[in-house]
Amino acid sequence: MTQTHTQHYKREDGRAIELTFAEPENAVRGGLVVLHEADGISDGVRLLITSLAEEGWLAVAPHMPLEPKQDDVLAATDITLAWLVEHGVQADLLGVVGFDLGGLAALVVASNRKLGAAVSVGGQSQGELPALVEIAGKLTSPWLGIYGDAGDELAAADVEKLRDAAAMSGVVTNVVRYPGANHRFDADPDAAVEAWQRTLNWFDAHLR
């Protein structure tokens, strides 16, 4: 079974961060930065990392502040991308994925960095991070947004505004809404399977 590992990574310029990662057993298809939810590096994050590794991706999660600002997200991602490049991943095979707070963080990254692909699963404006619609209009990386509308998730009208904003960015985007699902898809296993497959297909299509 694929295992996660945690490493203190320090750059020559003094920048440093804790990273939790999992490596594929066979050939590496590319590298994915996994941005964690508000609970930090939880069991759910580790499961996501190992699941991506089992699909052939070198998946690595930077340990970010639990209430990050935009600069925190971008700094953590930049260091993690450098780690992936040092581990042999080509620049056009780099992507980012996150859920809940990490979904918002992934959208921030996809609007400020040019990567091969990005995926956000849930996440809405909160704390020190900008509004979703404001960010989506500035996308610079191909982006897939997956949202439910249960509980505290985005309302249908908000998802439509997000879709329209993303479409104006000039890069390839897709926004998918699952009625009755939350960002974890706990209550709808079928939607969970489909959302996971959409995520894998997005990376398959754009990171090659």
Write out the strand line-up for the largest beta sheet, numbering strands in chain order. Answer: 1-2-4-3-5-6-7-8
Structure summary, number of beta strands: 8
Strand content: 15-25%
Q: Give the helix level as a range of percent.
A: 25-40%
Extract low-pLDDT stretches: none
* Secondary structural class: alpha/beta
Average pLDDT confidence is 90
Superfamily (CATH H level) name: Alpha/Beta hydrolase fold, catalytic domain
> Distance between termini?
26 Å
CATH topology label: Rossmann fold
Number of domains: 1
CATH architecture: 3-Layer(aba) Sandwich
- Please describe the biggest sheet, giving its number of strands, its sense, and whether it closes into a barrel: 8 strands, mixed
Q: What is the number of helices?
A: 6
CATH class term:
Alpha Beta
The SSE string, one letter per element, is EEEHEHEHEHEHEH
Pfam families: DLH (PF01738)
Domain Dienelactone hydrolase: 69-206
Protein name: Dienelactone hydrolase family protein
InterPro entries: AB_hydrolase_fold, Dienelactn_hydro, Dienelactone_hydrolase-like
